[in-house]
Automatic annotation (TrEMBL):
Entry keywords, A to Z: Cell membrane, Lipoprotein, Membrane, Palmitate, Signal
Name of the protein: Curli production assembly/transport protein CsgG
Presence of the UniProt keyword RNA-binding in the record: no
Organism whose genome encodes this protein: Pollutimonas nitritireducens
One annotated Gene Ontology cellular component of this protein: outer membrane-bounded periplasmic space
Superkingdom classification of source: Bacteria
Signal peptide annotation: 1-31
Amino acid sequence: MNTTNKNRAAYQRLALAGVTTILCGALGACAVPSTPVQVTTAAQLTPPTPTSHDLRNLPPPKGKVVVAVYGFRDQTGQYKPSPDSSFSTSVTQGAASMLVKALRESGWFTPVERESLQELLTERRIVRALDGSQAKDAPEIFIPALVPASILIDGGIISYESNVRSGGLGAKFLGVGLSTQYRMDQVTIGLRSVDIRTGQVLQTVSTTKTIFSYEVRPSVYKFVNFKDLLEIEGGITTNEPAQLCVKEAIEAAVVHLTVQGLKDRNWVLRNENDWNLPVIQNYLREATNYASVPLNMPADSNTTAVSPAPKDL
């Protein structure tokens, strides 16, 4: 009789453990939406952002504008909190490369090298030093002049706010629970175009991108028998890459800068009918609502199309 009771208790314990394992597996499946990334993956191109589509689908210009970018610095002064290194900044230090790439991909600007101007001039001097030291029948070395820029693009990463909003939610029942937490950071980009002939600031744009992070954590804490405690924990954390957020903010700033220049007639479209394209009107409407709509008030979706400034006679 005692043996039968012991076997029955053992079967009940195994059945309860099996049910708990299945429940934990179901919670884990909810927490992990896809297969975890492998440790060894092949290098690939940087993924595009949602703004990359608008940047690459701008209508063609009548003529490209030669621009110079001397730098795009991190002006936030923010460092990653402990336990990260105190010398590790919160945002990327290579934003100038992202800006040059965005300007080139827009199809409206021709960036010229200015960030590594000293290295470029050194190489040109080396080539000139070789002239005359070659064989007599060798062709003469010709170095064309550097292309001057008509517009200076300047600015930087002007703000990084950590933990702008955070929160979470959780529930447990009979030792089985699921909890989630989220956190929001913000990065702000400042961009301006300057006429090199007069030093006049033509356009200035400021864009903000939210960096979103969240965590999902299932757990089981349950006595499967009088002296047997089952404890299982799992979870997954997703952090939006900060460099991709900076890249998206820069691309949005370039699109806004281009559209504002069209509105002010600093540069013109190849086909004037492209002014009514959705990609142009959407950014014009966003800029108009930013200047006219009060804080925390919804924008009117029935805004009429914005017209460009009249041409100077």
